[in-house]
From TrEMBL:
InterPro entries reported for this sequence: DYW_dom, E_motif, PPR_At4g14850-like_plant, PPR_rpt, TPR-like_helical_dom_sf
Keywords carried by this UniProt record: Repeat
Domain of life: Eukaryota
Species, as recorded: Stephania cephalantha
Name of the protein in its database record: DYW domain-containing protein
DNA sequence: ATAGGGTTAG
């Protein structure tokens, strides 16, 4: 029975890829091995072979070699008919070199031979060789290419010049009207992005068959011209050409980019109507379409209903889950895929790299890297290497990311963007800036939207307003400033550098139908302590019917917490769930704990943590601990730190906070205890630093550091200021000094806090009355905050301090935060 | 004996 099936496939004749595909899917293939072997065995005695039959049932390259031997043995090797079939057989079985060897042995080649060789090369993706073969054919006397030659050659053209030359020959030999060739020409031109030339070929066709329509549709869709593809598709339906599975799999990819749910589903309906679901290409395209339309369930349903799945099906469904941040489902599917015998390919690996990053699994990440090395995909596949750089960066492993990047032979814009983003997202803004400055900016590597949105947050992070403005100019030159993401990053930059007015005016210019720019401007006002303005903007957003997302509520809630708007915060936390159906994530809870804690509702904050639906992490307990520091609650502070020393025992910040609480009430044994705890764990305090941009140069000051060229003058200035400050009522608050030392010493310690060094430097190195902008990596110290108020009055300057939390705008002896932060 | 147009990505 099975045997008959094998023969039936074979007897429908010819080694078209379709029949081979079918026979590969036929799990009973080994039986036909026997057919072949028996055929040889039986006929060997009489030396009378049915070569026809043997060709048709030859199962693999090994038997092809035996067949080859038999041909030689029986003197049939020079039969052009058989030898051409032999080279064809080899190429179908994936053995191009044997195919080419057989080709070389044929002394008198005819067009069939040449055509077979060319298409054999193409089938095995040896495009350069195929084109070469075509040129040899042109050069051999007495033989002309025929209509069968061109489709293969056109597919092989990796160079546009070759493509155009072949097109000329097509004209010269009078094949301009051949349908197969026309479709191939259309395909060739669209491969080089020349949709116009393709369209010209298409328009000049007096008759069009389905193949040329399909070529035109896919030509548009693959060049990102979804609307164009849709137009051709509609046109085709209008003239009454019936679509087939190829049409369907060519149009399906456009509905994702067009965000056209209805259109996509309509096609899905006709797929069902025509029974196209059984086509693997069609189902795969459906999975991808639904994934891009964010309809993960529909994508999964298509996948589950498939009878036959191929590697693309698995890759598609894995990528779908990966892109919807369900790495564990993706991983499970991958294991399943492997267990039924599918080997991962490059696309699987690209998804898996992201899956590993999302799981935070460094172990998986390294195995993926190892796998690509074993397959020698590394150093030759830019996309995979970019994926690896991205993976390592997201895992927080910056050094391996850099190593992969440096080892790349072909870096493109995305490689650079990925590395810049990688540094920026790991808090290494200055490294990000360094990489950006190193970026060539010519050739193929021209900064694009991705570059701008990766570097701007780095500038925002260190408050490098001047450099950021330079990039703003570059974005305008590149015409990228109209882009909504670039615009949003610029809003964020100006807001984070204290230029709220500039940020607001940019916001007015940016298209605001999406929540993205709104989120930026809301949080911008929030960090400046203008909570009321943030809420006003949120109302405006609702009035304009812009759908808020989870980021919007992080902005809103943190704005509430910066301004002490407790009741508003509670209200919006509820609203977000009840009206907008947004499930709060850890960050929202963090904002709420911060909000309640800072406002002094410490017990409420603690209750809130206890009622959280998931495990609180260090950010939650950290918020509670910080609140305990402000309100001097030792008991709860200890509870919070005990949790913190478990979940994030490596972070010194929390040890410092707790010892701060003890120092505040003069409990020096507590301070000592915490310090020795930190010492035992080998932890050292994160050095605090502050920076100030003067004359387009960033000056960095570390606490107590005297290495700055002007540090002597800086300390002199601070001494002068201190006397003046004291005369108008400044009293140092020694509770911010963690060392149990004499008061003189404490005063000196406070004086050498990095923010004060930076401010004093600003005073002596910028023009009279110019505003001073300081950036501090940690939170500003309470005594420095108080001192800065006095300084702003004495020197009559605006002093803007941005710390890791928010802005402090000092003017005339007051701070914009109203001492609430 | 030889031929076209199809799905997935950083």
């Amino acid at each position: 029975m099975v045997f008959k099936l094998g023969l039936a496939i074979a007897s429908r004749a010819t080694y078209t890829s379709k029949s081979l595909q079918l026979s590969r899917h036929c799990s009973s293939f080994p039986k036909t091995d026997n057919t072949f072997a028996n055929g040889i065995q039986n006929d060997n005695k009489s030396l009378d072979f049915d070569f026809h039959h043997l060709f048709l049932s030859c199962p693999n390259a090994h038997f092809a070699k035996r067949l080859h031997g038999l041909l030689v043995l029986t003197g049939e090797a020079h039969n052009i008919f058989f030898s051409t079939r032999l080279l064809n057989l080899y190429s179908h079985l994936g053995d191009v070199s044997s195919s080419y060897l057989a080709f070389g042995q044929i002394r008198k080649k005819n067009v069939f031979t040449w055509n077979s060789m060319i298409s054999g090369f193409v089938r095995n993706a040896c495009f350069v060789e195929a084109v070469d073969c075509y040129y040899q054919l042109l050069g051999s006397s007495g033989i002309r290419p025929d209509s069968f030659t061109f489709p293969g050659v056109l597919k092989a053209c990796v160079d546009l010049n070759d493509g155009r030359k072949v097109h000329c020959w097509v004209f010269k030999l009078g094949f301009g009207l051949d349908l197969f060739i026309s479709a191939s020409l259309i395909h060739m031109y669209t491969r080089f992005g020349l949709v116009g030339d393709a369209r010209k070929v298409f328009d000049e066709m007096p008759v069009r068959d389905l193949g040329s329509w399909n070529a035109m549709i896919s030509g548009f869709s693959q060049n990102g011209e979804s609307a164009g593809a849709l137009r051709v598709f509609e046109e085709m339906k209008l003239v009454g050409v019936k679509m087939d599975t190829v049409t369907v799999s060519s149009v399906l990819p456009i509905f994702g980019p067009l965000n056209d749910h209805v259109g996509g589903m309509l096609i899905h309906c006709s797929v069902v109507k025509h029974g196209f679901e059984s086509d693997v290409f069609v189902s795969n395209a459906l999975i991808n379409m639904y994934a891009k339309l964010n309809n993960l369930r529909a994508a999964r349903r298509v996948f589950d209903q498939m009878m036959v799945r191929d590697l693309v099906s698995w890759n598609s469904v894995i990528a779908a889950y990966e892109q919807h941040f369900e790495p564990h489902v993706a991983l499970k599917l991958f294991l399943k895929m492997k267990s039924i015998g599918f080997q991962p390919d490059r696309l699987t690996i690209i998804s898996l790299a992201s899956v590993a990053a999302q799981c935070g699994s460094g172990h998986n990440g390294r195995s993926i890297h190892g796998f690509t090395i074993r397959r020698s995909w590394i150093a030759e596949d830019t996309i995979i290497e970019n994926a690896l750089v991205d993976m390592y960066a997201k895992l927080g492993h910056v050094e391996p990311a850099l190593k992969v990047f440096e080892g790349m032979t072909r870096k493109d814009v995305i490689s650079w963007n990925t590395l810049i983003t990688g540094y920026a997202q790991n808090g290494l803004a200055s490294d990000a800036i360094e990489v950006y400055d190193r970026m060539p900016g010519f050739g193929d590597i021209v900064p694009d939207q991705g570059t701008i949105v990766s570097i701007l947050p780095a500038y925002s992070h260190v408050g490098a307003l001047r450099k950021g403005m330079g990039t703003h100019g570059r974005a305008i030159k590149l015409g990228l400033h109209v882009d909504i993401f670039v615009g949003t990053c610029l809003i964020d930059l100006y807001a984070k550098c204290g230029e709220l007015v500039e940020a607001t005016s940019l916001f007015q210019e940016v298209p605001r139908r999406s929540s993205v720019p709104w989120n930026a401007i809301i949080s911008g006002h929030g960090i400046h302590g203008h909570g009321d303005k943030s809420l006003e903007l949120f109302k405006e957003m609702q009035d304009e019917e812009v759908e808020p997302d989870f980021v919007t509520f992080i902005s809103v809630l943190s704005a509430c917490s910066h301004s002490g708007l407790v009741e508003h915060g509670r209200h919006y936390f509820k609203l977000m769930q009840e009206k907008y159906g947004i499930k709060p994530i850890l960050k929202h809870y963090g904002c709420m704990v911060d909000l309640l804690g800072r406002a002094g509702h410490l017990d409420a904050a603690y209750e809130f943590i206890k009622e959280m639906p998931f495990q609180p992490d260090s950010s939650i307990w950290g918020a509670l601990l910080a609140a305990c520091r402000i309100h001097g609650n030792v008991e709860l502070g200890k509870v919070a730190s005990n949790q913190l020393f478990v979940v994030d025992s490596e972070n010194v910040g929390y040890y410092v906070l707790l010892s701060n609480i003890y120092a505040n009430i003069g409990k020096w044994d507590g301070v000592d205890e915490v310090r020795s705890l930190a010492n035992d764990r080998g932890l050292r305090k994160t050095p605090g630093w502050s920076s100030i941009e003067v004359n387009n140069r960033v000056n960095v000051f570390y606490t107590g550091n005297q290495s700055h060229p002007l540090s002597e003058e800086v300390y002199k200035e601070l001494e002068v200021l201190l006397t003046k400050m004291k005369s108008i009522g400044y009293v140092p608050d020694y509770s911010f000094v963690l060392q149990d030392v004499e008061e003189d010493e404490k005063e000196r310690i406070l004086l050498s806090h990095s923010e004060r060094l930076a401010i004093a430097f600003g005073i002596i190195s910028t023009p009279h009355k110019a505003a001073i902008r300081i950036f501090k990596n940690l939170r500003v110290c309470g005594d420095c905050h108080n001192a800065t108020k006095f300084i702003s009055k004495i020197v009559d300057r605006e002093i803007i301090v941005r710390d890791s939390n928010r802005f402090h705008h000092f003017r005339d002896g007051r701070c914009s935060c109203g001492d609430y932060w």
